[in-house]
Amino acid sequence: MLTFVGLGLYDERSITVEGREALQTADQIFAEFYTSKLVGTDLQRLEYYHDASFEILDRAGVEQDPEPVLEAAESEDVAFVTAGDTMISTTHVDLRLRAHERGIRTRIVHGTTAQTAASSLTGLQNYRFGKETTLPFPDAHGGGDVPDSVVDTIEDNRDRNLHTLVYLDIKVDDPHWDGDEEFMRGDQAASLLADEFGSYLGVVVARAGSANPVVAADRIDHLADEDFGRPLHLLIVPGNLHDMERDALVELGDAPDDVV
Known about the structure:
With 260 residues, the chain is of the alpha/beta class. The protein is 33% helix and 19% strand. The longest helix has 12 residues, at 148-159. The protein is elongated, with a radius of gyration of 19 Å. The N and C termini lie far apart (50 Å). The mean pLDDT is 94.
């Protein structure tokens, strides 16, 4: 049995009750934290809280050589865990399909995701979000500061009057990166987007899932000059706002009246 468990957004307590029970009954637990990371905790606290050992896999160990996970799941109850939800914005459906090809039963225990948190914390209506995009660090894709695909996604969504959720790059277990782990912040993202969208409304969400998340709404070129504290951060570029969305961003994100 292979159970995919989402750990939620922030720390060791963000997991669901069902997810925690799945970890307690698992014979082995494999984890990856290169897709996203629980910045409110560390491996030692995770293992202490769940009274379990986690075997951390790198990208190659999940995507190219998952044999240890699959072999263990053929005879034992195995949990595979990530931050957020294991099937959102990841390639882990490939691992699930490989398990099915070998006759291994699978199930998914979902976790809270950045997608839902972005809507919940800002008051922007979830059904008005269009295609999402990821803004990479400038040196991560071999092109200019902002890939054309990011610009096109934001513009296409705005043409359809939809909001754009922009995931911000992280450098964890990156084969093209030799330095320490690094997380793009909201002000960096706003600065990168300012040339194209500086006069547009932007919304930064910081530390979703923590006890004190931050929501800040302003012109994108103004957000570029702010400090939103510790990661993880998200950036939203809204389309036209409904009245309630406008009220929410003023009340919850301190949006200036002349911007919304």
